[in-house]
Design a protein that fits this description.
Layout: E1 2-6, H1 10-22, E2 26-30, H2 33-42, E3 47-51, H3 59-69, E4 75-79, H4 84-92, E5 97-100, H5 105-115
Parallel strand pairs: 1-2, 1-3, 3-4, 4-5
């Protein structure tokens, strides 16, 4: 499966990507919402892991843009903190799953299997 990880923290993005690669996935990491949207436009992935709290374009804005292009693309939110209003908006936009940081790595593969 081709997976895109969008997270502004390089170490977090790399750890998540490596855990997903160990499960046999092809993983691309983007360090901002804008970069993630460019990756999606150039070569849409099969699933996206998306941080919510990022400088510039936050995860909700990214999810909103993704939904304009890809209504059914699985998007799994990864966040250390999500406000109730952000969670409600993410659900309204059709988020596939929400996983809290720190992420138990076994939960990544499970969430991806359920999304795909």
């Amino acid at each position: 499966m081709r997976v895109l990880v969008i997270d502004d923290e390089p170490l977090v993005g790399d750890v998540i990507a490596e855990a997903l690669r160990l499960e046999g996935n092809d993983v691309v990491v983007a360090s901002s919402g804008e970069e993630g949207l460019r990756v999606i436009a150039e070569n849409p992935p099969d699933a996206v892991f998306l941080d919510i709290i990022m400088p510039g374009m936050d995860g909700i804005e990214v999810l909103r843009a993704i939904r304009e292009w890809h209504l059914r693309l699985p998007v799994i939110i990864l966040s250390g903190w999500v406000s109730p209003s952000q969670l409600e908006e993410a659900r309204r936009l059709g988020v596939t799953d929400v996983i809290s940081k720190p992420v138990p790595l076994k939960n990544l593969a499970r969430a991806l299997r359920q999304a795909g």
